[in-house]
Amino acid sequence: VKFRPEGKVYTFGAGNLPLQKNDQVIVPTDNGPAIGNVVTDLQSIPINKLPHNLKDVIRKAMEADLRIQAENQCLEKDARKFCRERIQARELSMKLIGLECAFDKRKIVFYFTAENRVDFRELVRDLVQKFKTQIELRQIGARQETKMVKGLGQCGREVCCASSLPNIDRVSIKMAKEQGMSLNPEKISGLCGRLMCCLAFEYDGYVEMRKGMPKCGKTV
Question: How is residue 195 annotated by DSSP?
C-alpha cells in the first residue's frame, strides 16, 4: 500500500478482503487510520516470512471515506497558504515544501527546508490557533525535497525518487566508479544536488556482470 504516489510501499495483511490492485483501503498506522492505494496484487507468503508486526487492512474505502479525503485535501491547501503567509510575516528563514493531514484530522505535519536552525515556536502557535489540532514541523533534506517537489532529471524523465525508486536510502561515489562514469559532479548529480538514485539501481547489475568478465587490458 502507498499513501502518496512518491511514497514508500508498506505491507499489510489483506485478511479475508478480496482486494485488487488500485483499490483504495483504510489501514492502521502509528498516527491513526489512513487511506492508501493498493499498488500490487495479493501475494501468499509463508507465516515464517511475514514482516514483523504485520497489520491488517481495516476495510476497503467507502464513499464516506473518500469525502473525508477530499475534505483533508482542501484543508491541506488552506494550511499551506496560511503557513507560507505566517512564515513571511515572521520573517523566518525556512521554506515550506509540503504537508500532510492525518485522515482523522488529529495531526498536520508540515515539511520544510532550512540552511540553519530555525526557532519556529511562534509559527506553531499560529498554526495551532488557526487549525485547532496537533501540529508538527519536520525539517527535511535535499533528497526528500526533490522527492516531494518532483521534476525532470537530465535523462528527460521524472526523477527516480518520485517515480520508480522511492525506497533508495543510500547512494555512494563507489557506485559511480564501478560503472565507469565520469566523476564530474554535474554529470552524476540529480536535481537535489546529491548523487543520482539511478546509480544505486544499476550498481548490483554492474557488480554481477563484472564477475564474469576479464579485466580491462587482459588478453582473452
Answer: B
pTM score:
0.78
- Alpha-carbon span 143 to 160, nearest angstrom: 11
Q: DSSP class of residue 158? A: B
In whole numbers, what is the pLDDT of the chain averaged over residues?
89
Q: How far apart are the C-alpha atoms of 198 and 190, rounded to whole Å?
A: 9
pLDDT confidence of residue 87: 96
Contact 38, 18 (CB under 8 A): no
Q: How many C-beta atoms surround the C-beta of residue 209 within 10 A?
A: 9
- Read off the pLDDT of each residue in 127-151 and give the average, rounded to a whole number: 91
Distances (CA, A) of 58 to 49, 71, 163: 22, 21, 27
Write the burial class of residue 132 (CB in 10 Å: 0-12 exposed, 13-18 middle, 19+ buried): exposed
